[in-house]
Each structure stands twice: as structure tokens, then as C-alpha cells.
Design goal:
With 537 residues, the protein is α/β, with parallel strands linked by helices. It has 4 domains: 222 residues, Rossmann fold, CATH 3.40.50; 52 residues, no CATH class; 86 residues, no CATH class; 144 residues, no CATH class. It contains 20 helices and 15 strands. It has a 5-stranded parallel sheet, covered by helices on one side. A 5-stranded mixed sheet has the order 11-12-13-14-15, with helices on both faces. Strands 8-10-9 form a 3-stranded antiparallel sheet. β12 and β13 form a beta hairpin.
């Protein structure tokens, strides 16, 4: 067993994953990989956002195919064991497993980074094949070729996070070219490569458009159907995990609906929806809904993407934060560019990194977890102009509403409308939705805000479900060229207050006040009016 060749690392990594109470069996992926062995199209690259199980799958593949450790105890009880080719391939292959995110200590140069990999592989080959004379200073690929010529042995290459080096500050454009040349020399056209499986975030198309890595077939989440179900959690998989959570947790604090609200919403090209797997597992393990989207560099910051085109993007941000979708022409390769200027480039990069989801030609914010990241952006970046200003005013708007201070509410709405932005022209229900979300942005810390109805022309309707028992609930109706009294009458006629009642025989879900909030706008006078009534104490 070596550092990279026939290493026991993937086995140990996958063994720990399987021991987790919230393990999901994705081993059917292996059955789909068998046809790729020893054929011309034996190079595949899986690109997915962070935390979508790429490394888990890489460990699984290395543990299954590799000779280092008998993996029967791991896989005999899993789905792959029912495959006709299960025993044919289990632990029957020589695997080179490389995690490209691993760095030498105090690494500050590409030469040191690639030397660790090259030297480690050479040493592994020398130890595995002590009877072969590799000569003096033989190149790595020539050593593999020598092994193949003398023994007929070929190798499966499993390469995790192939693009990790691209995120390092010390890497120059020349270093990138050298790195791609290293991968090309190691893999392309080499008879000793039985199969190459590569994962990462960045698409390879940008840098392999010539000849370096164009032997790889890339499978991303937004445009390729194949392998869609193996990265991320499906709805039925989360159902089973939730059953496990309920059975093993003494005082469950999470509802099934909350898991969907916070971590679902990613779309695949196959038409399915995906949960962020890491966040689901962390929430169930901690017995707490929270944002588990931890940072790992500037690529986690939304502002990193929009900083070069704030003026064109910020109206879209306001619309997306209100739950709307923005049409784009997806450019997956754009994420490899360090400078992003057009909206299509910016949103495409955000899709690649999982900050937005893409479906049917449009992008949107996938779930509450990511919406919190967008909220954070609005509250902390003054460069966003009117959006930042309204975010700061939203705390006052909520306090004024709860206090019945309609004068302050009207002042804030006038401030919003006076900004020079087309979303405040009130030409459509969609624009009204964006306004409501912005002026009540601070409410999201204490309320689950839902847009309930889209019926009718010229009004929007929201319900604010309080997170804390005993807090006031809000039902909000906004009308154009009418009165706030009419808006409140609409709330009464639709009996929205029943949304807060419990089932028959159960206690009400909320024991605080239910406030009906009517807001109107007169397009002729350009004035807002507000009215608040208590529907229930």
C-alpha cells in the first residue's frame, strides 16, 4: 500500500461515512461506471457545487475497486451487491487515488505542490514493483508505461477536487498551463489507464478546449442528465433520513417541512430536485436548523461575483430575493474566469458554485439557507446602493408594523419608491413582491415569510409565520389604486387567519395576535397609505 497507489485512504474514508447514522446508499453509481472500464471513452469528470458528495463518491469508488483492503464488509449489504458484476470488480483493480486539495506543509509554490504528487507516485511504483529497473530520472508517465509493458498491469485513476489548485493565490497562469500539461501527460492516450474518474467544482471545458483534457466527458448538474441522482439527496432519501432522525432523537426540534424549506431547491438536468446533503446531515445530527454553508475562501462570498457589475445586477438581486427567477444564457465555463462582467457570466459562475440554481433557462435562489447568504449581502455591502439602504430600513419597517405606526411605514415606502429603480414602477405584481420583500427583509430572522396568492391583477399577498410562539403573526395585502381598508377587507374575505388555526381537536398553532396589514399605492398621487387591524388576540 502506498501514498497514492493502492492506498487504504479511500476505504477508511468511506467506512467512516457508512458508519454515520444518516448514511445514504449511492452505490448504484458503481454499476453505471463498469461499462467505462477499458474502453476508449473511459475518461469522465463529475462537476458539482461544493458539499454535494463528490468526495464521498470518490472514496466509495476507490474503496470498491482498490486492492488495498477487503471491502466486502462495506459493500455486501449495499445496493451494488445485487449487480451481476459485483464480485468481478470488487477489490480487483489497481487504483491510483489522488486528493488534489492536499497541499505540502507551508506550500507557496506550484513546484512544491506538484512535486509532492509526482514524487509520491514514483515512490509508490518503485515499492510496488521492486524488480523493475526504472532507470535514472525517468518521467512519471514513462514509469507507468514501463510497468504496463513489463507486467500488463493497468490502473484506475480516481482524482478528487482536480481544480483545487486553481483557487490558490500563488498559482499563476503559467502554473495552470503546466498543471494541465501534467494531467495530459499522465492520462491522455495512455494504455495503462483502465479508467479515469475526476471530480471538481470548475468545469474543464475552459482549459481543455484545445487538447489538454478534451478526452474527458464532463457531467455537470445543470445540463447533463446522466449521474444526476447520485450527487445530492433526493426527496425520498431525505424522507428515510428523517424517519431515522425521529426514531433516534429524544426531543426532535426539526420538522420535515423545515428540511425542505432550508436545504431543498437545487435542480438537475433530469428534472429532479436535490437537497444539499451536507446541510441535511449536519442539521439532523445537531438537531437544529441552521446555515451550514461554511466559507472556504472568496468564492463563498456572493459579493465576489457581482462586484464588477453592481448596477446591472442589483435589481435582479432584489427580484431573486423576493423569490423570482431571472432568465440567463448559461455559461458554465465562465467560473474559471477570474474577472466576471456580464450578467450571464456572473450568474453562471454562481450556479457552478451552488449559490444559485438553474432550471429552464433561468436562475433563482434555491432555499432558505442560501437566501440567508443573500440577506447577509444586502445588510453588509453599501455598494449595493438603494438595496442596502432599504435593508437597513427594514428593521424599522417591522417595528413600525408591530407597533401600528402607519406614518413610519408610509415614510419608508415612499423612500423605497423614490429610488431610481424600475422595480419600483409598480407595473406588475412581481415588482410589488420585490418591494415587500425588501422593506420587510429584517423580518426573515423572526418569521417564515410566504407569498400565498397570485390571483388577481394589481395586488400581492404575504403571510408572516412567527418562529417564536406568542409572537404576532402578520397577513399583508398590497393594492394599487385602492385603499388599505379594501386590502384588509380582502384579507378578511379570504379568511387568511385560518392559516394559523390548528387542526380540529388541536390547540391553535399561534397564540399571539394576528395583524392584518393593508398597504395601498395611488399611481396618480404617488402616495402610499397603510392600515393595521387586529384580527385575533
Amino acid at each position: 500500500m502506498g501514498m497514492f497507489l493502492n492506498s487504504r485512504i479511500p476505504f477508511e474514508s468511506y467506512r467512516m461515512v457508512k458508519r454515520d447514522a444518516y448514511f445514504v446508499d449511492k452505490t448504484s453509481l458503481l454499476d453505471e461506471l463498469f461499462p467505462f472500464l477499458e474502453v476508449e471513452k473511459r475518461f469522465i469528470c463529475i462537476t458539482r457545487p461544493r458539499r454535494f458528495g463528490k468526495s464521498v463518491m470518490a472514496s466509495m469508488i476507490g474503496a470498491f475497486f482498490g486492492k488495498a483492503v477487503d471491502a466486502s464488509p462495506l459493500f455486501d449489504t449495499l445496493r451494488i451487491a445485487f449487480s451481476e458484476e459485483y464480485r468481478t470488480h470488487l477489490n480487483q483493480h489497481r487504483v491510483v487515488y489522488i486528493d488534489f486539495s492536499r497541499m505540502p506543509q507551508d506550500c507557496s509554490a506550484y513546484a512544491a505542490y506538484i512535486e509532492r504528487i509526482s514524487h509520491g507516485l514514483k515512490r509508490d511504483l518503485e515499492e510496488e514493483y521492486p524488480d523493475i529497473d526504472f532507470g535514472f530520472r525517468m518521467d512519471l508517465w514513462d514509469m507507468f508505461q514501463t510497468v504496463f509493458e513489463k507486467t500488463g498491469h493497468n490502473f484506475i485513476f480516481v482524482m478528487d477536487e482536480w481544480d483545487a489548485i486553481f483557487h490558490k493565490d500563488f498559482i499563476s497562469e503559467k502554473d495552470r498551463r503546466n498543471y494541465l500539461e501534467f494531467l495530459r501527460n499522465l492520462l491522455k492516450g495512455q494504455a495503462y489507464v483502465e479508467f479515469a474518474y475526476m471530480t471538481g467544482i470548475l468545469p474543464i471545458a475552459k482549459y481543455s478546449g484545445g487538447s489538454e483534457l478534451n478526452m474527458f466527458v464532463e457531467y455537470d448538474m445543470a445540463t447533463r442528465v446522466k449521474f444526476s441522482e447520485y450527487f445530492g439527496f433526493l426527496d425520498e432519501e431525505v424522507d428515510k433520513l428523517y424517519e431515522t432522525y425521529i426514531s433516534k432523537t429524544g426531543e426532535p426540534r426539526i420538522t420535515r417541512e423545515e428540511l425542505a424549506l432550508w436545504y431543498d431547491g437545487y435542480h438537475t438536468a433530469a428534472g429532479g430536485r436535490m437537497y444539499n446533503p451536507r446541510s441535511v446531515v449536519c442539521a439532523l445530527t445537531d438537531n437544529q436548523i441552521s446555515s451550514y454553508w461554511t466559507g472556504s475562501g472568496p468564492y463563498d462570498e456572493i459579493f465576489y461575483y457581482i462586484r464588477n457589475n453592481i448596477e446591472e445586477v442589483r435589481d435582479d438581486l432584489a427580484m431573486m430575493i423576493s423569490g423570482e427567477r431571472i432568465n440567463i444564457k448559461l455559461q458554465g465555463y465562465a467560473a474559471t474566469d477570474m474577472e466576471l462582467y456580464t450578467k450571464d457570466q456572473i450568474y453562471s459562475a454562481m450556479v457552478v458554485y451552488g449559490l444559485l440554481t438553474y432550471k429552464d433557462g433561468a436562475v433563482s435562489v434555491p432555499n432558505r439557507e442560501l437566501m440567508d447568504k443573500f440577506d447577509e449581502l444586502l445588510f453588509t455591502n453599501h455598494n449595493l446602493g438603494y438595496i442596502y439602504s432599504l435593508a437597513k430600513e427594514s428593521e424599522k419597517m417591522l417595528k413600525a408594523t408591530l407597533a401600528g405606526d402607519v406614518d413610519t411605514m408610509c415614510r419608508i415606502l415612499k423612500f423605497a419608491h423614490d429610488t431610481e429603480s424600475p422595480i419600483f414602477s409598480y407595473n406588475s405584481e412581481t415588482e410589488l413582491s420585490a418591494v415587500v420583500n425588501l422593506v420587510y427583509l429584517a423580518a426573515r430572522d423572526r418569521y417564515r415569510v410566504e407569498r400565498e396568492d397570485k390571483a388577481g391583477e394589481g395586488y400581492v399577498d404575504f403571510i408572516f409565520y412567527p418562529e417564536r410562539k406568542g409572537a404576532d403573526a402578520l397577513i399583508l395585502e398590497l393594492k394599487i389604486d385602492s385603499t388599505p381598508k379594501d386590502a384588509i377587507q380582502q384579507i378578511k374575505d379570504k379568511k387568511y387567519a385560518l392559516r394559523f388555526a390548528g387542526k380540529i381537536g388541536e390547540a391553535p398553532k399561534y397564540t399571539g395576535r394576528i395583524l392584518a396589514v393593508g398597504i395601498s399605492y395611488n399611481r396618480k398621487t404617488k402616495e402610499h397609505a397603510c392600515r393595521i387591524e387586529v384580527l385575533q388576540n
